[in-house]
Each structure stands twice: as structure tokens, then as C-alpha cells.
Design brief:
Layout: H1 11-21, H2 24-27, E1 32-37, E2 40-45, H3 60-79, E3 85-94, E4 103-112, E5 116-125, E6 131-141
Antiparallel strand pairs: 1-2, 2-4, 3-6, 4-5, 5-6
Length: 142
């Protein structure tokens, strides 16, 4: 019996993975896949009062969760959907507050080895393009 082929990547497939693979509270964030390329994905995080703290600023916890989620999908664009993985390290720097606009998250695989994947994420305002958060990540392939 032969294994079924790897599904063809598409925005729709990646959006479906957000629904299938992630916890309900991640799904509730409303992340939307905007684009992808091998080793890279860009998501949009809609502005929401549920994800904002006092003053309407997007909270750091939401930024970190969105960054981590985007990186999983970036790894999928390079290694496919059949590689279980887990976050080993997420180092986040918050550069400036984001309020009154959606966030755009771009995650890129820097290096994919046999057991570890290294990546970087940039989050910016979807309207003004100004970077608000940078993260570096390490994932273990299981």
C-alpha cells in the first residue's frame, strides 16, 4: 500500500490547518492566511477588542501566539504537513505598540535541519507597515 501524496499547498489548505491543528483560543484570534512561498507565510491578525489591553493596544500575548502560529505554517510550506513539531524556543522583542489596525505577520524559515528548524518572524501594522514585534524561534521536529 502506498502512502497518499502530500496535499498541494494553497492559501485554503493553510487556512484549513489553522482550523484543524490549533486550539480553539488560537482559532478565535481570527488569523487569516494572506500569502505563502516555500519557507514563508504571511498572516493577518484582525484588530480586536478581545486581543487588546488598556488603550486599545494589541497585547503581547496575542503577538507571541500569532508569531508562533505563523511559524508553524511557514515550516509546513517548506517541509509539508506530515512533520510533527513543537516549539522549543520563542524569543520576542516588542518594538512599539500597535493599535487601531490589523497586524501582518510574516514568518520565514532560516534553516531546516534533520531535527531542528530555526526561523524569524516580523509583525507590522497592516496599514502603515511599521514593524512592531520581532521574534526568533526554534522548533524540534518530532
Amino acid at each position: 500500500m502506498t502512502a497518499s501524496p502530500e496535499p498541494t499547498l494553497s492559501v485554503e489548505l493553510l487556512q484549513g490547518l489553522l482550523r484543524e491543528w490549533f486550539a480553539p483560543w488560537i482559532q478565535a484570534m481570527g488569523l487569516q492566511v494572506e500569502s505563502f512561498a516555500p519557507g514563508e507565510v504571511t498572516l493577518r491578525l484582525p484588530q480586536s477588542d478581545q486581543l487588546s489591553r488598556i488603550g486599545g493596544m494589541l497585547c503581547g500575548q496575542a503577538m507571541m501566539s500569532a508569531a508562533d502560529t505563523a511559524m508553524v505554517l511557514a515550516i509546513v510550506t517548506q517541509l509539508g504537513t506530515r512533520r510533527p513539531m513543537t516549539t522549543v524556543q520563542l524569543n520576542t522583542s516588542f518594538l512599539k505598540p500597535l493599535s487601531g489596525q490589523d497586524a501582518r505577520i510574516t514568518a520565514r524559515v532560516l534553516r531546516a535541519g534533520k531535527s531542528l528548524v530555526f526561523g524569524e518572524i516580523d509583525m507590522c501594522g497592516a496599514n502603515d507597515g511599521r514593524s512592531v514585534c520581532r521574534a526568533s524561534t526554534t522548533y524540534a521536529l518530532l
